[in-house]
Task: inverse folding
């Protein structure tokens, strides 16, 4: 690795002041699990890293909001998030997803804010949080703004977060009586990068699907909502014919990208299969 300066601000304001919107070699670092690998590989050569670990003021922690929302500080580790009683009771799909997200060593260090800001399309939480309707709070020199998780990533390792901004919190609406599932296909171990991930959130009325939110990951350059598949599911029943039509709609509407985890043709078939499985898993 090349030499770099390490800054350790104590407040969010100090951290924002240390970032430079015109200098790509000045980067924030939270858990560092992705940044350090990129530096070791020579992909990233920062002049200055701004560590967020020493910031006071509630950038870590999991709590319930006034409207029953789940409020997650950006510096909350993935392990703490998955183990939180509040998450396990109210948003079990998040807790289940975290069990096979990378490995326990990574989860003990990686943070939710860094996870989302890194914008690797193979990550597990972005499609889940997108399907749940979550949003992130972003702080910058002009104040705070809120962006849906679904709109956060703009492509491979690219987000709407400017170089002088930081993700400070993640807000997840109450799940209520909705049913949710996330399934992924990995080509090696269960905690490997997925060839495809499928997140489904359903609201049912009797045996009919009233609303459907379906988001795919790892098959495109960013988590992508499957609007056509949602349209097929909405108002229908989860029978074989409906799920087959929804799976075909999902495969047909995607511009799937092949990678070392699987070819485009393989992932297109996975989309059909895993949409059916995820819907059935969500319905129990």
Result:
């Amino acid at each position: 690795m090349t030499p770099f300066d390490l800054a350790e601000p104590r407040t969010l304001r100090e951290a924002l002041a240390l970032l430079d919107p015109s200098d790509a070699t000045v980067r924030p670092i939270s858990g560092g699990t992705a940044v350090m690998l990129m530096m070791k590989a020579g992909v990233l050569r920062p002049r200055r890293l701004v560590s967020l670990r020493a910031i006071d003021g509630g950038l870590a922690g999991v709590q319930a909001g006034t409207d029953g929302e789940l409020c997650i500080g950006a510096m909350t580790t993935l392990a703490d998030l998955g183990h939180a009683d509040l998450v396990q009771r109210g948003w079990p799909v998040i807790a289940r997803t975290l069990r096979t997200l990378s490995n326990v060593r990574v989860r003990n260090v990686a943070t939710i804010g860094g996870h989302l800001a890194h914008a690797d399309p193979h990550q597990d939480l972005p499609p889940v949080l997108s399907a749940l309707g979550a949003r992130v709070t972003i702080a910058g020199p002009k104040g705070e703004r809120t962006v849906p998780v679904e709109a956060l990533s703009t492509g491979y390792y690219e987000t709407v977060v400017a170089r002088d901004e930081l993700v400070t919190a993640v807000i997840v609406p109450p799940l209520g009586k909705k049913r949710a599932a996330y399934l992924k296909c990995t080509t090696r171990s269960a905690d490997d990068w997925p060839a495809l991930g499928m997140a489904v959130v359903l609201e049912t009325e009797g045996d009919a699907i009233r609303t459907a939110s379906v988001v795919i990951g790892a098959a495109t350059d960013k988590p992508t909502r499957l609007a056509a598949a949602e349209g097929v599911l909405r108002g229908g029943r989860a029978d074989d014919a409906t799920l087959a039509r929804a799976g075909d709609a999902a495969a047909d509407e995607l511009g799937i990208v092949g990678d070392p985890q699987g070819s485009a043709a393989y992932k297109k078939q996975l989309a059909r299969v895993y949409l059916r499985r995820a819907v059935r898993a969500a319905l129990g």
Q: What stands out?
A: Residues 160 and 176 are 30 Å apart (CA to CA). The first helix runs from residue 12 to 18.
